[in-house]
Amino acid sequence: MNLTGAISKRSLDHMTRGSLIRAMFERGRLLKEQVGAANVHDYSLGNPFNEPPPALVQAAQRMWADPRPGMHRYMSNVGFDDVREQIAASLNARHGLTHPLNKNHVIMSCGAAGALNVVLKGVLDPGDEVLVPRPYFVEYDFYVDNHNGVINPVETDANFLPDLNKLEAAIGPRTRVILIDSPNNPTGVIYPESFLRSLDELITRAEEKFGHYIYLLSDEPYAGLAYDGVTVPSVLKNVRHSIVGTSHSKDLGLAGERIGYIAFSPRIDDVQQLFNACALHTRTLGFINAPAVMQRVVAEFQGEVAGLADYEARRNLLYQELRGMGYQLVKPAGAFYMFPESPIPDDGIFISEALKRNLLAVPGYAFAGPGYFRLSFAERTLEDIARSLPVFRELATQYGLRGWV
Ligand SMILES: Cc1ncc(COP(=O)(O)O)c(C=O)c1O
User: Fold this and answer.
1) Does 3 map to a domain?
2) 223 CA distance to ligand 1 middle (Å)
């Protein structure tokens, strides 16, 4: 008997749309088998290269060897009280928050992805809209769809900054969330404080018009990875109705440990109702609570970043060289991505040409940003980057880019 319906139509749709980066990854794996890893220039994946700080590993070992009684049991869904208190205190101190957070504004999560899903589940009714500046991290489509929301991409300017007029025009009666990610994946852009202040005013106007909360949901796994001594402006400080979803996947190199948190602005009048809903959804979505040992470990390393200087050196080398060859790109201010313009309008064709030379990148259309391509330098050492430069140069020559090298 030929049966159909092994998986839902929604899963089929997600698998089709989510297959591109996966396909690149598989392609890279095969290529590495065929020609050797050193001959494949793999700029496809955003896997953090940095190892956690040695002191963090030691702290984790200590905790496993001598846990507090009951440490590995179920706990409150929101996480340990003292850990949440420590994170709130760190946020207050690092951002100089005059409306300080306490433990009742922090929920521990399974990474940033877990945090975003919990929040979206807490605030979206079916058909509610989430505005997101384009280009954006592909997984947002799935997170929003998980909770029956509708994603609505909004154009950005030539520097990938959201256009406030377009953002305001896009807000309608069903808009519940504006979702941002700064430093940004895929562009590396950091949104300035003045932008956040304008966004706060814009949200207040829209809330008065439509009569319900509109949240700025800030996805911040890259907040610690800012270059040139820059500090990423605080959303909690500048936007009254803001919620942060973040993790230590990238700044502490703990992506596999699934540890992060949600932080709610105390200036949301109904913050306790929102907190309680998200606490519930930590359970209803099957997370139950964030990993116990990792909660205690990261509490002691708030504000620390592993490998920042390495990432910055890679950013400097790759940016300088690509500009010199004539590629058009915005200098990434943070994260470990670059989003250069494709030398030809069809980024898919450009990526295929790069692939022929064993250079792997992701076409911009996978981020709703056609005409560009994304390079992740997370796993590329300076030597790897240097080895790949002749390939970028060949492509530049093939497409007639005019550089100075
Ligand atoms: C923009 C963005 N948000 C969220 C995530 C997911 O982060 P986590 O692994 O902490 O869940 C990623 C991972 O690459 C990301 O790039």
Assistant:
1) no
2) 11
Residues with CB under 6 A from ligand 1: 46, 111-113, 137, 181, 185, 219, 221, 247, 249, 255, 260
- Tell me the CATH number at 95: 3.40.640.10
How far apart are the C-alpha atoms of 25 and 31, rounded to whole Å? 10
Indicate which atom in ligand 1 lies nearest the CA of residue 184: 1
Distance from residue 255's CA to the centre of ligand 1 (Å) = 9
- How many domains, the chain? 2
Distance 201 CA to ligand 1 centre (A): 28
H or E element at residue 87: helix 81-95
- Domain extent for 96: 54-299
Retrieve residue 113's tokens: 């992805």
| Strand bridging mode 337-338 / 106-109 | unpaired
The Cα 335–Cα 221 span in angstroms is 9
Cα 155 to Cα 172: distance, rounded to the nearest angstrom: 16
Question: How far, in whole angstroms, is CA 311 from its chain's centroid?
Answer: 16
| Residues with Cβ within 8 Å of residue 136, at least 6 apart in sequence | 153, 179, 181, 367, 368
Which atom from ligand 1 is nearest to the alpha carbon of 248? 10
If phi > 0 it is left, if psi is from -120 to 50 it is alpha, else beta; for residue 148 that is left
Ligand 1 atom with the shortest distance to the CA of 114? 11
Instruction: Measure the CA–CA gap between 164 and 217, rounded to whole angstroms.
Output: 16
Q: For every one of its 405 residues, what pLDDT tens digit does the chain have, with 9 covering 90 and above?
A: 899 899 999 998 888 877 677 677 788 888 889 999 889 999 998 888 889 999 999 999 999 998 888 889 999 999 999 999 999 999 999 999 999 999 999 999 999 999 999 999 999 999 999 999 999 999 999 999 999 999 999 999 999 999 999 999 999 999 999 999 999 999 999 999 999 999 999 999 999 999 999 999 999 999 999 999 999 999 999 999 999 999 999 999 999 999 999 999 999 999 999 999 999 999 999 999 999 999 999 999 999 999 999 999 999 999 999 999 999 999 999 999 999 999 999 999 999 999 999 999 999 999 999 999 999 999 899 999 999 999 999 999 999 998 865
311 and 294, same structural domain? no
Same domain, 375 and 240: no
DSSP H helical segments within 300-373, as ranges? 308-325, 347-356
